User: Which sequence fits this backbone?
């Protein structure tokens, strides 16, 4: 299960991440601010978002409402110390699928996550997406333009797809590393540069070598 945790309490966040990985065997990404939660949630699919109500730079209710307004269909579990009936109603009406009051037992959190994952909120993605007179096929990992096509490796396609989904935005190398390889991997940032180089070489066959732009000292973006 791929989980995004949005929690600004450092001690609680560390505990939740540790227990979710140890007891649940889940992959967890952790942010501490509301805007970061929104950015992560709109950049990659998560099975469940664990959203704290009170966070800096965007509270959980507001972020939840923004996500739903812009079509986010994934599962959201709200964490909060607010335990009145009206608070529960507000949290659920904002778009949360479940509500857990602090303090809580980690076993209950795990059970609620399993229940949410069984409802299968995974978005149905189009098999093909078109950008810059070029078509990307998510099933075959083929990229074609006109009569020409290229085959990307799964990792190359994931990276290209991530940049395409966030076209016009600069993605730092650290974010790319986290999204594609994961924080627990021993891959270096140089691996990203090498993978980009391989993708560009293949895109050159399609005349699209300038699609991926390097931002010195920061990362990459898809320019179209």
Assistant:
């Amino acid at each position: 299960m791929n989980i995004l945790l949005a929690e600004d309490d450092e001690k609680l966040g560390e505990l939740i991440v540790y227990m979710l990985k140890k007891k649940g065997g889940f992959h967890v990404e952790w942010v501490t601010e509301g805007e970061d939660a929104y950015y992560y949630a709109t950049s990659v699919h998560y099975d469940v978002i664990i959203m704290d109500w009170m966070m800096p730079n965007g509270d959980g209710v507001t972020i939840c409402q923004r996500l739903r307004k812009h079509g986010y269909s994934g599962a959201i579990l709200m964490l909060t110390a607010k335990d009145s009936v009206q608070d529960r109603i507000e949290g659920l009406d904002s778009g949360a699928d479940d509500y857990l009051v602090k303090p809580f037992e980690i076993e209950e959190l795990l059970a609620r996550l399993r229940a949410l994952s069984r409802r299968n909120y995974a978005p149905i993605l189009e098999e093909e997406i078109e950008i810059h007179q070029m078509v990307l096929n998510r099933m075959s990992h083929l990229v074609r333009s006109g009569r020409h096509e290229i085959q990307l490796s799964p990792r190359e396609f994931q990276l290209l797809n991530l940049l395409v989904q966030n076209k016009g935005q600069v993605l730092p190398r650290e974010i790319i590393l986290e999204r594609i390889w994961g924080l627990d991997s021993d891959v270096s940032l140089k691996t990203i540069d090498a993978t980009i180089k391989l993708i560009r070489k293949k895109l050159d066959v399609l005349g699209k070598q300038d699609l991926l732009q390097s931002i010195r000292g920061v990362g990459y973006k898809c320019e179209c």
